[in-house]
Amino acid sequence: MTSPVFLIGARGCGKTTVGAALAQALGYEFRDTDHHLQQVTGKTVADIVAAEGWEGFRRRESASLMAVSAPQTVIATGGGMVLAERNRRFMREQGAVIWLQANAAVLATRLSAYPQSAQRPTLTGRPITEEMSEVLHQREALYRDAAHHIIDAMQAPERVAAQILTALARDDGRKGVSLTG
Ligand SMILES: Nc1ncnc2c1ncn2[C@@H]1O[C@H](COP(=O)(O)OP(=O)(O)OP(=O)(O)O)[C@@H](O)[C@H]1O
Ligand SMILES: O=C(O)C1=C[C@@H](O)[C@@H](O)[C@H](O)C1
Ligand SMILES: [Mg+2]
């Protein structure tokens, strides 16, 4: 397998955390669309949203997705990457798409412990548990639509990474190629 691996899912599901470990295990590059956007603009998500609105941010994150996608790369995407149909189609066509699934209570607990509010400005203006419930309600069908594999992200990061490796190896087995070849 050489095609990119895209990690999708809500804020706090572990795309950045698990993505780095997964890339290391595969010997792949690791890219993160939120980090890329911050590097090229020199601005945080909150800065971009304040200057250009969420619409401007969504346009820029779609461009980031195209910019970082490459063979032998694990890509942690922004939580809202799936909102655009074009992004969902692009990821499905270009590589393997993995949804890291977690419930609102777990996500809210993680995000409360480590808010990073410059990178995660409020999406709804509501308290965090309510916000995550609302966001999941709006997006679950989109994550499901985009994903080739759904992984339980409410386990230790190493377990999550191991289960993704198993799913990718199974894909390769079906195609008759080895994971590293
Ligand atoms: N499997 C896990 N178990 C426990 N804590 C986790 C797990 N995965 C991530 N975390 C913790 O949750 C927080 C959010 O993780 P991370 O930044 O990787 O999420 P993300 O999906 O990249 O979020 P965002 O969409 O906002 O970029 C971090 O503090 C991280 O240490
Ligand atoms: O879920 C979302 O809409 C977001 C998630 C983060 O990764 C960032 O991309 C940004 O804060 C928006
Ligand atoms: Mg992240």
UniProtKB/TrEMBL annotation:
<dbReference type="Pfam" id="PF01202">
    <property type="entry name" value="SKI"/>
</dbReference>
<keyword id="KW-0479">Metal-binding</keyword>
<feature type="binding site">
    <location>
        <begin position="12"/>
        <end position="17"/>
    </location>
    <ligand>
        <name>ATP</name>
    </ligand>
</feature>
<keyword id="KW-0418">Kinase</keyword>
<dbReference type="GO" id="GO:0005829">
    <property type="term" value="C:cytosol"/>
</dbReference>
<dbReference type="GO" id="GO:0000287">
    <property type="term" value="F:magnesium ion binding"/>
</dbReference>
<keyword id="KW-0028">Amino-acid biosynthesis</keyword>
<dbReference type="InterPro" id="IPR023000">
    <property type="entry name" value="Shikimate_kinase_CS"/>
</dbReference>
<keyword id="KW-0067">ATP-binding</keyword>
<feature type="binding site">
    <location>
        <position position="120"/>
    </location>
    <ligand>
        <name>ATP</name>
    </ligand>
</feature>
<dbReference type="GO" id="GO:0004765">
    <property type="term" value="F:shikimate kinase activity"/>
</dbReference>
<comment type="similarity">
    <text>Belongs to the shikimate kinase family. AroL subfamily.</text>
</comment>
<dbReference type="GO" id="GO:0008652">
    <property type="term" value="P:amino acid biosynthetic process"/>
</dbReference>
<feature type="binding site">
    <location>
        <position position="34"/>
    </location>
    <ligand>
        <name>substrate</name>
    </ligand>
</feature>
<keyword id="KW-0057">Aromatic amino acid biosynthesis</keyword>
<dbReference type="InterPro" id="IPR000623">
    <property type="entry name" value="Shikimate_kinase/TSH1"/>
</dbReference>
<dbReference type="InterPro" id="IPR027544">
    <property type="entry name" value="Shikimate_kinase_2"/>
</dbReference>
<feature type="binding site">
    <location>
        <position position="139"/>
    </location>
    <ligand>
        <name>substrate</name>
    </ligand>
</feature>
<dbReference type="GO" id="GO:0009423">
    <property type="term" value="P:chorismate biosynthetic process"/>
</dbReference>
<comment type="subunit">
    <text>Monomer.</text>
</comment>
<keyword id="KW-0460">Magnesium</keyword>
<dbReference type="GO" id="GO:0005524">
    <property type="term" value="F:ATP binding"/>
</dbReference>
<feature type="binding site">
    <location>
        <position position="155"/>
    </location>
    <ligand>
        <name>ATP</name>
    </ligand>
</feature>
<feature type="region of interest" description="LID domain">
    <location>
        <begin position="112"/>
        <end position="126"/>
    </location>
</feature>
<feature type="binding site">
    <location>
        <position position="32"/>
    </location>
    <ligand>
        <name>Mg(2+)</name>
    </ligand>
</feature>
<dbReference type="InterPro" id="IPR027417">
    <property type="entry name" value="P-loop_NTPase"/>
</dbReference>
<keyword id="KW-0808">Transferase</keyword>
<comment type="pathway">
    <text>Metabolic intermediate biosynthesis; chorismate biosynthesis; chorismate from D-erythrose 4-phosphate and phosphoenolpyruvate: step 5/7.</text>
</comment>
<feature type="binding site">
    <location>
        <position position="58"/>
    </location>
    <ligand>
        <name>substrate</name>
    </ligand>
</feature>
<feature type="binding site">
    <location>
        <position position="16"/>
    </location>
    <ligand>
        <name>Mg(2+)</name>
    </ligand>
</feature>
<dbReference type="GO" id="GO:0009073">
    <property type="term" value="P:aromatic amino acid family biosynthetic process"/>
</dbReference>
<feature type="binding site">
    <location>
        <position position="79"/>
    </location>
    <ligand>
        <name>substrate</name>
    </ligand>
</feature>
<keyword id="KW-0963">Cytoplasm</keyword>
<comment type="function">
    <text>Catalyzes the specific phosphorylation of the 3-hydroxyl group of shikimic acid using ATP as a cosubstrate.</text>
</comment>
<protein>
    <recommendedName>
        <fullName>Shikimate kinase 2</fullName>
        <ecNumber>2.7.1.71</ecNumber>
    </recommendedName>
</protein>
<keyword id="KW-0547">Nucleotide-binding</keyword>
<dbReference type="InterPro" id="IPR031322">
    <property type="entry name" value="Shikimate/glucono_kinase"/>
</dbReference>
